[in-house]
Amino acid sequence: MKKLLLTGFEPFLDNPINPTAKIIEALDGKTIASWTVEGKLLPVDFHQAGKHVLEAIQTHQPDAVISLGLAAGRQMITPERIAINCQDGAKDNAGYIPLGEKIQETGADGYFSTLPIQAMVNKLHANTFPAQISNTAGTYVCNHVMYQVLHACKQQEKEIPAGFIHIPASHELALKKTMPSWSQSDLTKAVELIISCLEEG
Ligand code: PCA
Fold first, then answer.
1. How much is the pTM?
2. Which domains does the chain have, with CATH numbers?
3. Residues with CB under 6 A from ligand 1
4. What is the residue-wise DSSP string for 71-112?
5. C-alpha distances in angstroms, 11 versus 22, 60, 69, 119?
6. What is the pLDDT of residues 81-140, one digit of tens each?
7. How far apart are CA 115 and CA 120, in angstroms?
8. Residue 166 known to be catalytic
9. Site to substitute for ligand 1 among 136, 142, 146, most atoms within 8 A of C-beta
10. Atom 7, ligand 1: which residue's CA is nearest?
């Protein structure tokens, strides 16, 4: 049995709910295909999120890492293609606002996802879930986490599949804000399908 570290985030900015937290809660401890899921909730904090995920990798020594984040306003499940060495934008939950900073001073400009992102999109389509590859994870905490994980894998010569999936809002979140939304159970099912692609990668 292989071990998957599956991360999600706490609520942030004007999103009082983060559906990724519910997905990891639902899947924590479950076995999907030959993968046992280790769920880990991350803070939306530029100074803490990377630390937490790298500590979890150190502790659990997973065979793959999938990080999930909410992209409120997106209509589809979007596996991210690339993380960039830049953080910028809105305030995090600790009140910090980065202004176009490097995430790793001497790190690569970007790292490509090592997840089988096209296979994931194909599998979601085969199960009638709208999905497409995204070419930008933005510059907020999600991009930060994706970058830090891929950078650490590179530094430590860990050849494991790792990357990031942005998901749309849940209906519960959309009750409070006007935006495209999915049922929480479909979001969870979509992530299960994504996990089942790992062996194909
Ligand atoms: N989405 C944010 C950070 C936390 C989350 O769920 C992002 O897209 O960066």
1. 0.98
2. 2-200 (3.40.630.20)
3. 9, 12, 18, 20, 44, 69-71, 138, 140-142
4. -TT--SBEEB-EEES-B-SS--TTS----SB-SSTTS-SEEE
5. 11, 25, 10, 29
6. 999 999 998 999 999 999 999 999 999 999 999 999 999 999 999 999 999 999 999 999
7. 9
8. yes
9. 142
10. 142
